[in-house]
Each structure stands twice: as structure tokens, then as C-alpha cells.
Write a structure and sequence with these properties.
With 242 residues, the chain is an alpha+beta fold. It folds into two domains: 19-94, no CATH class; 124-224, Sandwich (Immunoglobulin-like), CATH 2.60.40. Helix content is 20%, strand content 24%. The protein has helices at residues 19-37, 66-73, 76-92, 224-228, and strands at 46-48, 54-56, 61-63, 124-131, 138-145, 156-161, 175-181, 188-193, 197-198, 205-209, 214-221. Helix 1 (19-37) packs across helix 2. The radius of gyration is 32 Å and the shape is elongated.
Amino acid sequence: MDFQNRVGNKFGGGGVASHSITNADRRERLRKLALETIDLEKDPYFFKNHVGSFECRLCLTVHQNDGSYLAHTQGRKHQTNLARRAAREAKEGKNLDAVTGLPVGMIGQQVAVRKNLIKIGRPGYKITKLRDPVTRQLGLLFQLQYPEIGTEIHPRYRFMSAFEQRVEQPPDRAFQYLLIAAEPYETCAFKLQAKEVDKSPGKFWTHYDPDTKEYFLQLFFKTEREERYAGVPGLAPSGPRK
């Protein structure tokens, strides 16, 4: 490599470039070559982390600037890993995702894409108070109507403590919330007393009728005796006396 025009060298001297200068020149040539063929915005392995550095998700390397990353993409390590991944995907029959550009099953494909659905309002509902004639437990029966629900959608429920919600402030530990959701309807939240729900067979159950598009949820609260002595060895559960 002729570096006769470098600073500190006489004309025609043809000074020998040092190892570091040779590497810098090679990286610059590779960067210019990569700029002509690679669009970083479409590169599925290009990632900018929280400290401003650039990472290669394929080779798990960190680079201080985009030029260093581009030079890395033209290097032997990156090209070898690309060939290995292509061979593995061809063997396993994997395809690239049309949205992210990543192979199906990679990190990024495991996150479900949130759908931008238009909510059409709250479903009709009916709440019936119940009392078990044997154990005298208090309970509730929820009936919700979803006439416009999709054919593949099934209503779901979850219990939420008062400290998870952000509607009523400050939170009251004496209450809990029952959430029932089914797209495209708005999620319904029912405010309940903060008692433990009895999930034994026959006490707690849910049912969805796809013909009438009605959702049923029944629950019973444990009595104070059951809450106080739950899990105590040798204590028989409350029930009908014989």
C-alpha cells in the first residue's frame, strides 16, 4: 500500500503504513461498500441500544457507530453467520415475517402485535344475587350479552385488586374488581367486596354459549370461618350437618 502522500513522508518515499492505519483504511472501504448495498432501516439485525451504541443481533456484537456496524456486516464473521442462518432456515422450512423481516420464532416474533380495534360500547349485562341454601354462602351470577362478538373470540375474566386500578384514588383495600373482556366490546369492571372467592367445583364456573352469544360467570364468597381457618390441618370444611 503506497502512502507516499501522508504527512511526514517525503514525496516518492512510499512510507509503509502501520497496522492500525491499514485497518482504518480497510474499515472505511468496507463502510463505503456497505452504504451502497445496505439500508440500515431495513436490516433486521441492526439495533440501537439505550446508550447509543449499535448492536448486531445476529453476531451479538456491539459497535460505537454505524460505520463500524456496516464494516462488520461485510466481514467474515457476519457473512458466515448469515450463511449458517440461511442454511438452518432452509432446513427447518422457516420463512421471514412480512412485518418485521425477522425469521418466525426469533425474538420480536414472540410479541403479539396489538390490534387497533374500534370499541363498539359496553355489552348488556345482568347481575343476580345468590345464596347457597346449604353453606349459606353469598354469591353472584353475571350474565353478559355479546351479539356482535367475533366467531373466534371467547370472553375472558380476571380478578384485580384495588391497588392495580387507577380509576378510584386512593385505593380501598375493602374492594376488588372483576374484569370481563371480549373484543370488540369495552372491558366491563365489577366492584366486589374483597373476600376470597370459593373456587371449589360447583361453586365457581363460567360458560359461553356461542349460539345465543351469552357469557355466564358464577362465584361464591367464602364465609368468615372458611377464610379464617383455611388450610388449618385437621379442620373439616364447612358443609351440611348430618
